[in-house]
Amino acid sequence: MKAEFIEALEEIEKEKGISKELIFEALEAALISGYKKNFGSSQNVEVDVNKETGDVKLYAKKNVVEIVEDELLDISIEEAKKLDANYELEDIVRVEITPRNFGRIAAQTAKQVVMQKIKEAEREIVFDEFINRENEIITGIVQRASKNNILIDLGKTEGILAPSEQIQGEEYNQGDRIKSYILEVKKTTKGPQILLSRTHPGLVKRLFELEVPEIQEGIVDIYNISREAGSRTKIAVYSNDENVDPVGACVGFKGARVKAIVDELYGEKIDIITWDKDIKEFIQNSLSPAKVVKVEVDEKEKSALVVVPDYQLSLAIGKEGQNARLAAKLTNWKIDIKSESQYNSEIHSDEELIDNIEN
């Protein structure tokens, strides 16, 4: 190892932020490994790397004993005192054993191991960076597909968009810039694994936080989000300032803010509704854009009966029940929707039944 090697380590430390001490530790371990591999020795070996010049010396550590049982591990007291008169029994003696051609063989082995250690250190740095970004939004570039997974270039590493986290019908073409939600960061033997999502409600939440200054400032808060990715989302918001309309803030001037989010989600419909502490009002709002005539609630069962005009029934329920389903998720209440004629018919039937019983 020459001075150029030390300079190279210093460059690595500057460019990659990897401690030179960490590399020296890896280097010493590599040299010991290289010696044992190439010289087949079971000696207790120690390496000394001069951190200024790069010179390497190899030592065998031997126990000072009266009777030598294993020449590789022991040295007699007489031989030890020839090296230094101060040695006593049970001391440890270092005897230089650097082979003539050790430098070339060991350096080759060391290079491989040191590079591996550098990779591990880089992976650790990436893991530390991303573990603190779980549940955040990140922009990346679509790289390629692998076994139905979409690999996203995140700069220092790649993220994985699994099939279950991809929006149905959405195309991911190489070079596309997309925003994703960091679902989970795992530590694996191959380095950090960044699991991304395009379907998680958290993606919508983070997009609104990016687009709406009032949310960033805490003037407007998001109460809850229910989402069927690629199709429709309902988001309930409320204002901490009576002078600020939470829905208007989220929609933006001429719909600019919500349009930016819809564009990012490739046309996913977004209903922005006002959260209300009065559950009847909140349930009524949650079924937007349908108009509601009446809401009856059962607090104990957390269930509600909602009455809508006959012509609004299909709108309230939504295609394949989507509007009602999203409203139930948003409010965390069971919602049963009936038209006015159905509701009146049932009341009329109940009244007749009561009359018959009384008569």
TrEMBL record:
Sequence intervals crossing the membrane: none
GO biological process: DNA-templated transcription termination; transcription antitermination
Any Pfam family the entry gives: KH_NusA_2nd
Main localization, broad class: cytoplasm
Cited function: Participates in both transcription termination and antitermination.
Assigned protein family: Belongs to the NusA family.
Protein name per its UniProtKB record: Transcription termination/antitermination protein NusA
Annotated organism of origin: Gottschalkia acidurici (strain ATCC 7906 / DSM 604 / BCRC 14475 / CIP 104303 / KCTC 5404 / NCIMB 10678 / 9a) (Clostridium acidurici)
